[in-house]
Amino acid sequence: MERIDPWGSIDIKDYGKLSKEFGIKPFKEILFRIKKPSLYMRRNIIYGHKDFWIILDAINKKQKFAMLTGLMPSGKFHLGHKVIADQIIYYQRLGAQCYITVADIESYLTRNIPLDQAYKLAINEYLLNYIALGLKPKNVHFYFQSNGSKEYMNLSKYVSKKINFNEVKAIYGDISPGKLISALTQVADILYPQLKENKGPKPVIVPVGFDQLPHINFTRDIALRMKKEYNFILPSATFNKFMPSLQGTIKMSTSAPESYIALTDDEKTVRNKIIKYAFSGGRATIKEHREKGGNPDIDVSYQYLTFLEESDAKLKKIYYDYKDGKLLTSELKEILINKLNSFLKKHQQNREKAKKVLHKYILKD
Ligand code: TRP
Predict the structure, then answer these.
(1) Looking at residue 363, what is its pLDDT?
(2) 313 CA from centroid of ligand 1 (Å)
């Protein structure tokens, strides 16, 4: 069986195979039950889930539920991060209470990022962009791992009582004490919305990328064993595929600016990055491309459009035009550049406006 290292670089060749091995259910099997699926749901970008039916029931019966997810403040906010942000906003619009945790303890323990720097990154890179993307202050609980409630802090220690070292090893391999503390802190994050102080127990959805899978399994094992004391409902989760790096590898890397488009990149930078780096599924010559067609399935510009282009009809046309050789790589790149730059222009204006309302999200209780 494969092991996923949530702190290491990850390379997933086959999301389907991995899902099977880890007991993740295909999301598309429940898609038909969702009234207004998001773009990521429709496009199978949200690929797998655990117990999403609990959330569906809550939505359909108009019962309270919560969304919790976390961010690792390590650098610039890029398109890969936007995938999670959009999901947060999707659940907020469905009426979820939104818990967003800044994993500053984790980034200090595992990446050596000082807490004051993590604070600035969390606000300027993450929160501002979330607001610009549409996050509203209502029902948002934005907190830092280093500054949680007393019950939360205690919970992060109590959870250790429910597991032994062999189980830790089976899930994470040989990890450092710092990583183990980070994992236990994340378990407390995920269970936090269900504490008495938050009027739990309640259904909680945790939207994450595939790399967080070990933490979800770890949390669910522990939650089950704490049922007697806390009466937790097993947290639900969805797992999204990553938006690939410009080079076409599995995901963008915060430490390599040529691998991503940041939401603060200017027009020229976007254009240069796409033209210079976006991996092409086109043929060696125009003549050959016209004759044999390109391969949209490996073409990064096309892949990006699957995350960005709302219209299914437009996307489909691009797919077949490229496959049939009607659309050249340079033209496909131009479609993406225009799409991105018109989105970013508006987004960056919204980000400026967001600075004025920041206090509504962080100065609460
Ligand atoms: N470990 C996550 C990351 O690397 C951050 C995180 C901390 C998190 N607590 C969480 C994610 C709870 C989801 C739920 O990005």
Answers:
(1) 65
(2) 35
For residue 309, being part of any structural domain is answered with yes
Position of tokens 């999670």?
Answer: 84
Do 162 and 93 fall into the same domain? yes
Half-sphere exposure of 337 (CA within 13 A, CB side): 19
In a domain? residue 4: no
CB-CB contact of 270 with 337 (8 Å): yes
Do residues 220 and 96 share a domain? Answer: yes
pLDDT tens sequence across 175-225: 999 999 999 999 999 999 999 999 999 999 999 999 999 999 999 999 999
pLDDT value of residue 10: 83
Provide DSSP, 131-161.
HHHT--STTEEEEEGGG--HHHHHHHHHGGG
Atom of ligand 1 nearest to the CA of 189: 12
* Ligand 1 site, CB within 6 A: 68-70, 72, 101, 103, 106, 186, 189-190, 206, 208, 212
**Closest by Cα among 169, 171, 176 to 112:** 176
Write out residues in the chain with pLDDT < 50, as ranges.
Answer: 365
Ligand 1 midpoint to CA 71 (Å)? 6
Show the DSSP H helices in the chain as ranges: 15-21, 39-42, 52-60, 79-93, 104-111, 115-121, 128-133, 150-158, 165-172, 177-191, 213-225, 227-230, 267-277, 286-292, 300-308, 312-323, 329-354, 359-362
* Domain contains 363: no
Distance 6 CA to ligand 1 centre (A): 10
100 and 233 part of one domain: yes
Ramachandran category for residue 139: left, alpha or beta (phi over 0 → left; psi -120 to 50 → alpha) = left
- Torsion angle defined by CA atoms of residues 324, 325, 331 and 335, in that order, rounded to the nearest 10 degrees: 10
For residue 101, the CA-to-ligand 1 centroid distance in Å is 7
- Residue 313, both tokens: 């009809």
Q: By C-alpha distance, which of 254, 249, 190 is closest to 224? A: 190
